[in-house]
Amino acid sequence: MDAKQIKVDGQTITLTLTEEQVKANGGKAVNLTFDAKNS
Q: Of all helices (H) and strands (E), which one includes residue 24?
């Protein structure tokens, strides 16, 4: 997934999928793994 598809706003993480990604992964669970940084 391209980093441009991920938006972080405070504690909210938004993933924007392309139409192709939705068609390829429709109905499947999305696993989100990230490293938290203290700023």
A: helix 19-25
